[in-house]
Write a structure and sequence with these properties.
By secondary structure, the protein is α+β, with helices and mostly antiparallel strands. The chain has 13 helices and 14 strands. The longest helix is centred in the first third of the chain and has 22 residues, at 64-85. It binds manganese (II) ion.
């Protein structure tokens, strides 16, 4: 079994556009990038609707690929209906690239010219086929990849969500393994920097966050002609054989850790043993930092992870119930690792958008220091993902 260890999302307007019509969703194990098009902010609306459909949850039936494809078709219907109903929305559309980790497979659904990539062992493999004019010409052998990269019409896409009542969705499944890094991005990245540059950045940065920042910076340095969105996530072994994750690691310069000595199969005594071992090796526990004891830690603005618009729709649009499907991991007032249900926000007047869902038996001091910030970054997760991650934390199966 493979799990998402860490995920980041970054978006940037770029240097030439006035607004940002890209949207993304990070809801481990589900990830989405959508790049909207259409005048008068219609593109922003289209990409936002697409992301909202995924945020609301996938259909229960079918394979991972079928679930993703059905969500894409549903997003297409909604965008198309709105584009017909409102004059200023006419012709709006969006690309969409979605990826979902399912056991040891990554399911990918795709329409348009955003892209998915797998970075493994220092090399970058594209997982999606562009539905673009130049993409078709490359496939017909009429253009080389290099010519396509420079082609003046390279941003013309041949398939999108919104323009037609029905959309054809491409899906794939790829076997994945611990250490793999997945990238979803809008064409604002790939039209500005070459794939070998993307691979070089992923090889040379010390973590996903630094890699995402660097990719955006390089796209801007190359001109930043379009909105740039980058979603990165990294996989690790789920069942405790975290050595694999070390072995396959592709980001370099991560802090080394002692190889975990836990049994690969959890047993009831494992946690106590782990805690005893930690106590021996660490001496006194590291206290949680002052000022962070009262509330779950706001390590990163969640606005960077889920678009603010999605959050506002959920909160203001009577979507309170929808927020009850969302979970995140943090620490409670005593520094104990806790699963919260809801959104990691506190409104003025002290109204919390979250509640305690599960209090673990693990203090934040028992989590490997190198993993604390990623574990406590309040990424929104499914209940299953949050519970599975917390279980690994409790069993001491978190590597690095
Ligand atoms: Mn774009």
């Amino acid at each position: 079994m493979v799990r998402v260890a860490e995920a980041v999302a970054r978006t940037d307007t770029g240097r030439q556009r006035r607004g940002n019509e890209d949207n993304s969703l990070v809801r481990s194990p589900l990830f989405v990038v959508a790049d909207g098009m259409g005048g008068a902010q219609a593109g922003e609306v289209a990409s936002q609707i697409a992301v909202e459909v995924f945020a609301a949850g996938l259909p229960p039936q079918g394979s991972a690929e079928e679930k993703l494809a059905e969500a894409v078709r549903e997003a297409n219907r909604r965008i198309h209906e709105l584009s017909r109903a409102e004059r200023e929305r006419r012709g709006m559309g969006t690309t969409l690239t979605a990826a979902m980790l399912d056991d040891t497979q990554l399911a990918v659904a795709h329409v348009g010219d955003s892209r998915g990539y797998l970075f493994r062992g220092g090399s970058l493999t594209r997982l999606t086929r562009d539905h673009s004019l130049v993409g078709a010409l490359v496939e017909q052998g009429k253009l080389t990849e290099a010519e396509a990269e420079e082609h003046p019409q390279r941003s013309i896409i041949t398939r999108a969500l919104g323009p037609e009542p029905e959309v054809e969705v491409d899906t794939w499944s790829y076997p994945v393994r611990p250490g793999d890094v997945l990238l979803l991005c809008s064409d604002g990245l790939t039209s500005m920097i070459r794939e070998d540059r993307i691979a070089a950045v992923l090889s040379s940065t010390r973590n996903l966050s630094a890699a995402a920042d660097r990719l955006i910076d390089e796209a801007n340095a190359a001109g930043g002609r379009d909105n740039i969105t980058v979603v990165l996530f990294e996989l690790e072994e789920l069942d405790g054989s975290a050595n694999d994750a070390q072995e396959h690691r592709t980001m370099v310069g991560m802090p080394a850790v002692a190889p975990p000595s836990q049994p690969s199969r959890p047993d009831p005594g494992a946690r106590a043993e782990r805690r005893a071992r930690l106590a021996r090796t660490q001496g006194s526990p590291v206290p949680a930092e002052p000022g962070r004891r009262r509330n779950p830690r706001w390590a990163k603005p969640v606005a960077a992870l889920v678009s603010v618009s999605v959050v506002l729709v959920l909160v203001l649009g009577g979507g309170y119930l929808a927020t009850r499907q969302l979970y995140f991991i943090g620490t409670d007032a005593r520094g104990v690792m806790t699963i919260y249900r809801g959104l990691p926000y506190e409104l003025p007047a002290g109204i919390r958008l979250y509640e305690t869902f599960y209090t673990s038996g693990v203090s934040v001091a028992d989590v490997p220091a190198a993993r604390r910030s990623s574990l406590l970054s309040h990424n929104l997760r499914s209940q299953k993902d949050a519970s599975s991650l917390m279980r690994s934390i409790e069993l001491g199966q978190i590597s690095r």
